[in-house]
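Quick one:
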Amino acid sequence: MILIISTPNDAPANGVEVRLRARGLKVLRFDTADFPARANLTMSYRPGVPKYTLRVGDDTHRFDRLDAVWFRKPGQPEIHADIKDEEIREVMQQDASEFLSAVWDSLDCRALPGIPSDMKVAQRKASQLGRAQALGFELAPTIVSNDPREFLDLYRTESGRLISKINGALTLRSRMGSEFMRYTNTVSTRDVLHAHSISYGPLVLQAYVPKRVEIRVTVVADKVFAAEIHSQSANRTRFDWRRYDLGTTPHKSHELPDDVAQRCVDLVKISRLTYGTIDLILTPDGRYVFLELNSAGEYGWIEQLTGLPISDAIADFLAANASSNEQTPQVHYA
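Output:
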């Protein structure tokens, strides 16, 4: 059995699930946002009882092991509405998350992108830059710091041509329910005047690298899929292609040099992952400069715009150790 952990409306996960079921494989879908309010999960250490039991509604699944698990898009655990006290709800949510982490760490099977504890470590920008550099990737002059003096020193060295981005994958949700995300920005003279404010928390500060195109690399085990993002075609995406302007930002498949492709595979592997997305810059003079690795990076829009068979590669990885079932259950989104 293959376990896919994701939300019901996750289109890339739905596409991979259809592929797996077409091969006659049993797929169990679980949305962790259902736990513990709408789902029951048990780890058992009783003789003669399967180790894991998952109940969602009228469906019960008992199993001792899985062939593979895909931590695609885990939702935040939701506490039952009967619990009204906000402090108690917060404690219970933390406890539910800790229990889920223990379950995932105990699964003895192939995992994509990897077990969540390894995914969390791999996300840390300050250390992933070191791993990338050790493998031979070119890096832009970079500091991760909350020291105003170090910031100003790099600013002077690079003649003021710097970009800044946050150290983690932080998003802020306002009281009105809208979401704010901090994108990559250029460092302005106003930022220099307020250099002391960096002491409130660390930032990634990096020399600006001229771009011919940006390269989004998706690694699935030993398979590499590279796409060009022509971010310089639109002002909106010039400094951060995540300010999507797909109508004026062409996407094309890209052939990486063999040594760069191998570094991408090696970086994912030494990060204890089986999947990762890597952002590179291809400079006007043909150099590949490393930006970052994302252990749970999106790929759906890249596949749609370029035709790169990423979903097929994910299905191949998940199905590698699985055997087909004579009776395949219908598609079910928990």
